[in-house]
Write a structure and sequence with these properties.
Elements (H helix, E strand, L loop, with lengths): L4 E4 L9 H10 L4 E7 L11 H10 L3 E7 L7 H7 L3 E5 L6 H10 L3 E6 L17 E5 L14 H15 L4 E5 L7 H7 L3 E4 L10 H13 L1
Parallel strand pairs: 1-8, 2-3, 3-4, 4-5, 5-6, 6-7, 7-8
Helix pairs in contact: 2-3
């Protein structure tokens, strides 16, 4: 697939030198930066909020893909949009009125995404599929980086791709969790065209440029 977008999650980046980590990824030719927002309630981990998003916005012109793994995301949409998020993704599991939240995201000037956890039926996103710019299929249970890809995700990607082609062909299909050079081609061949990579790009001793090149080569092989 020629239009596959690749972006690193800064969840596993070295925050002592975050500007350098982002610059290295941008120089390596990534397409976007993924920011995982965790609240310690919906998921057990706590990461960061709009202040860090705003700081990252000042560091790069790449698209900021902001993934809200938080309870009541509708309460925080304005602050993340104001911080510079280009795309805001909410979880179908955390939002009582997803259509209203997605409408607000668009009103705030950002693109809209809906995310599903590994055990969440795909059908829960079908009713809002015409109103989103991206569907995010989680291939690990959300909350921590460095997890192993769940193999059954591949069939979920295939089924969601079929639905997207029927109802909203311009919608991106993003996958996040446990993706590396050894499995990225399977994920893309199943129908994903926006890939988030964490520890396979940002890990001690890993060359960011080399990792991105290896991932690109695996996609095109």
């Amino acid at each position: 697939m020629s239009d596959v977008l690749l972006g690193p999650s800064i969840l596993t980046a070295n925050f002592h030198c975050l500007a350098d980590e982002i610059a290295a990824a941008e120089a390596a030719g990534v397409d976007f930066i993924h920011l995982d927002i965790m609240d310690g309630s919906y998921v057990p981990n706590i990461t960061f909020g709009p202040v860090i998003v705003k700081s990252v916005r000042a560091l790069t012109g790449l698209r900021l893909d902001v993934h809200l793994m938080i309870e009541h995301p509708e309460r925080h949409l304005e602050s993340f949009a104001a911080a510079g998020a280009d795309l805001v993704t909410i979880h179908v599991e955390t939002c009582v009125h997803p259509h209203a939240a997605l409408t607000e995201i668009r009103t705030l000037g950002a693109s809209r995404g809906i995310a599903l956890n590994p055990a969440t039926p795909l059908e829960t996103a079908f009713e809002v599929l015409p109103f989103v710019d991206q569907v995010l299929i989680m291939s690990v249970n959300p909350g921590f980086g460095g997890q192993t890809f769940i193999p059954t995700t591949l069939s979920r990607i295939e089924r969601m791709r079929e639905r997207i082609e029927r109802e909203n062909p311009s919608c991106r299909l993003e996958v996040d969790g446990g993706i590396k050079a050894s499995n990225i081609a399977q994920v893309v061949n199943a129908g994903a065209n926006m890939i988030v990579v964490g520890s396979a790009i940002y890990s001690p001793g890993v060359s960011v440029a080399g990792a991105v090149r290896q991932l690109r080569d695996a996609i095109s092989a």
